[in-house]
Specification:
Elements lengths: L15 H20 L6 H16 L5 H4 L6 H14 L3 H34 L2 E4 L9 E7 L5 E14 L2 E15 L6 H11 L7 E6 L6 H21 L1
Parallel strand pairs: 2-5
Antiparallel strand pairs: 1-5, 2-3, 3-4
Length: 239
């Protein structure tokens, strides 16, 4: 996939037509993946670049606080130096503002397309517990099934908390375990028993089934959406 640098809009020669061509080539490739119902990492990447444009346009001086996982100190310093240099040149600043405004509009449209796919996939997911739910639901397993439901992918998950801007968030870490073929004998309950015999480090795990009757790319779409949906489901159950 074509990628953009964190400061692509201000790198090198600042020219609207040049940056427009760079942007449209990037968006064309993002759109190709979206047309295949492949959301990640494209959706997260374009959201990052959109937020970066908006932050730069609004002269945010604390980008590192907003994007701690993406920016390094060197990149932060580069952004600030770029801003200080450009703001002194009215013509250059006007050209850059045109680039940013045009890019932000088109990126926002692409984000809307990706969000529609995300919401469609999420709406088609059904989540329910397999067996009794223990008191501790922050660690366990989930079964992921699509289409005919015959092939069931099993993942181990662990939820954790982190704080940002005085707000608490949940994050999820997952590990693929194996794929079971589901049938009249090999039910979800039987798969759960087989799983507990194979992996004994969690004595009383929470187990959930996440199903959809449609088919989506697993790694690029179904799994990321399922993980986020599971986090919200568990959070609502724990509330």
């Amino acid at each position: 996939m074509k990628t953009l640098s964190e400061t692509w809009f201000a790198d090198g020669y600042i020219d609207f037509e040049l940056k427009k061509y760079t942007l449209l080539a990037y968006l064309q490739e993002v759109d190709k993946y979206f047309n295949e119902n492949k959301l990640y990492p494209q959706l997260a990447d374009i959201i990052f670049h959109y937020n970066n444009l908006v932050a730069f346009r609004e002269n945010k001086k604390y980008l590192q606080e907003q994007f701690p996982k993406k920016f390094t100190g060197v990149q932060m310093e580069k952004l600030q130096v770029l801003y200080e240099q450009i703001i002194q040149d009215d013509d250059l600043m006007a050209e850059l503002e045109e680039i940013i405004n045009y890019s932000a509009t088109h990126m926002k449209s692409a984000i809307s397309s990706g969000t529609e796919i995300y919401e469609f996939v999420e709406d088609k997911l059904k989540i329910y517990p397999v067996g009794l739910v223990p008191l501790d639901i922050n660690e366990g397993y989930f079964f992921l099934s699509e289409g005919s439901f015959n092939a069931t992918r099993v993942y181990q998950y662990r939820l954790s908390f982190f704080e940002k801007h005085d707000e608490k968030y949940r994050s999820i870490r997952t590990e693929y375990i194996d794929t079971w073929q589901r049938n009249m004998i090999n039910t979800f309950e039987q798969i759960k028993l087989d799983l507990l015999q194979r992996k004994s480090e969690i004595r009383n795990p929470a187990v959930y089934s996440i199903e959809t009757s449609l088919r989506f790319p697993v790694e690029e779409t179904l799994l990321p959406v399922a993980k986020r949906t599971l986090v919200r489901y568990i959070s609502s159950q724990a509330a």
